[in-house]
Design brief:
By secondary structure, this protein is α+β, with helices and mostly antiparallel strands. 45% of the residues lie in helices and 15% in strands. It has a single domain, classed as Beta Polymerase, domain 2 (2-Layer Sandwich).
């Protein structure tokens, strides 16, 4: 995380309350597998009506994209995208608290969220993140699907998830920025890896 985002995070901390950092940035903080530039915060409660007002006291906001009880998304004057999401699903794995007081989801919890997102058609970075988690044995695909069905219920469909997992046809934005010294796997290798996993489960 660059200095600009570290400074922004320090400004956000007093306002976060029960929001937990998830998504690619939370995963990158733990795996250091790629660079991630956005902040995605999750809460089991609806977005407070005055959250934007509170945030504007600490952060300079350029434009607001979405402002509802389910989602608040805006860009700062430094063009950093920040999203606060209502996430009405239980956590299976323990939330981690960093030294600075920031709460983040575990690698395994993020894997479940990525599976949910891919099942509803995610972006290439979601596939890349899930590949990194599974390939490095932080979670096994069978456990992932079983827990996703338990947590997300009828909104997670195993068959649809596996179909989406191996279909790269309509994905865009394949630009992943590696951390210095890291060599990224090829897109074809990631697709082949998922195809082999899916064949074992279908």
């Amino acid at each position: 995380m660059d200095n600009k985002r570290q400074e922004l995070l320090q400004k956000l901390l007093p306002v976060l309350g029960d929001f937990v950092l998830g998504g690619g940035t939370a995963l990158a903080l733990q795996l250091k597998h790629r660079k991630s530039f956005d902040f995605d915060f999750f809460s089991s409660s609806r977005i407070p009506k005055r959250l934007l007002e509170k945030l504007s006291q600490n952060v300079t906001i350029k434009n607001v994209v979405i402002d509802t009880s389910d989602e608040l998304t805006f860009f700062t004057t430094d063009d950093i995208k920040i999203t606060f999401l209502y996430y009405p699903f239980k956590q299976h794995f323990k939330i981690m608290e960093l030294e600075n007081g920031l709460c983040i989801f575990s690698i395994q919890e993020i894997a479940l969220q990525k599976a949910y997102t891919i099942g509803r058609r995610g972006e290439y970075r979601d596939y890349f993140d899930l590949y990194t988690i599974l390939k490095n044995n932080y979670m096994e695909i069978g456990e992932l699907i079983s827990l996703a069905k338990e947590i997300y219920g009828s909104v997670f469909d195993k068959k649809l998830f596996l179909e989406q997992l191996v279909y790269f046809g309509d994905l865009s934005n394949f630009d992943i920025i590696p951390v210095s010294g890291k060599i990224l796997p090829k897109i074809e290798d990631i697709k082949q890896y998922f195809e082999e996993l899916a064949r074992k489960l279908i």
